[in-house]
Amino acid sequence: MNDPLDLHLQELRRGTVVLSCLQLLRTPGYGYGLLEDLERHGFATDANTLYPLLRRLEKQEFLTSEWNTEETRPRKFYRTSAEGERLADILTTEWNALTGAIRSLTDPHPVTDEEN
């Protein structure tokens, strides 16, 4: 991953994984299942990135967790906390604004304030 393009793509995706986890974990899930969900939604992430992120978000109180020991193999389930839901809402609003701003930079026929 020494290619400058790869480094820029990694940087661009970093924040999207945080937001994606907060959104997906509004329904409780465990790490491996979350990796699969992220992949299914187009956010390819590896375990070495995801698990430290989950621990960090839990430490920051944006996620809560509890162990499920009812199955053969115990699993730690994560859920977005109330504070995490507020953060996800704020980040989603900001993401939508940024998406609109980028679109305005690449749109060949931008709408100006004078045209509205």
The average pLDDT is 91
Which segments are poorly predicted (pLDDT under 50) over 5 or more consecutive residues? Answer: none
Q: Order of SSEs, N→C?
A: HEHHEEH
CATH architecture classification: Orthogonal Bundle
General shape:
elongated
The residue fraction in helices comes out at 55-70%
For the record, what is the CATH homologous superfamily label?
A: Winged helix-like DNA-binding domain superfamily/Winged helix DNA-binding domain
The total count of helices amounts to 4
Using brief descriptors, characterize the structure shown.
116 residues; alpha+beta; Arc Repressor Mutant, subunit A; three-stranded antiparallel β-sheet; 3 strands; elongated
Q: Could you please describe the fold and organization of this structure?
A:
This protein is an alpha+beta fold. The protein has one domain: Winged helix-like DNA-binding domain superfamily/Winged helix DNA-binding domain (Arc Repressor Mutant, subunit A, Orthogonal Bundle), CATH 1.10.10. It is 59% helix and 12% strand. It has helices spanning 4-24, 31-40, 47-59, 82-106; strands at 29-30, 63-68, 75-80. A three-stranded antiparallel beta sheet has the order 1-3-2. A hairpin with a 6-residue loop joins strand 2 (63-68) and strand 3. The longest helix has 25 residues, at 82-106. The N and C termini lie far apart (45 Å). 11% of the residues are buried. The model has no long low-confidence stretch (mean pLDDT 91).
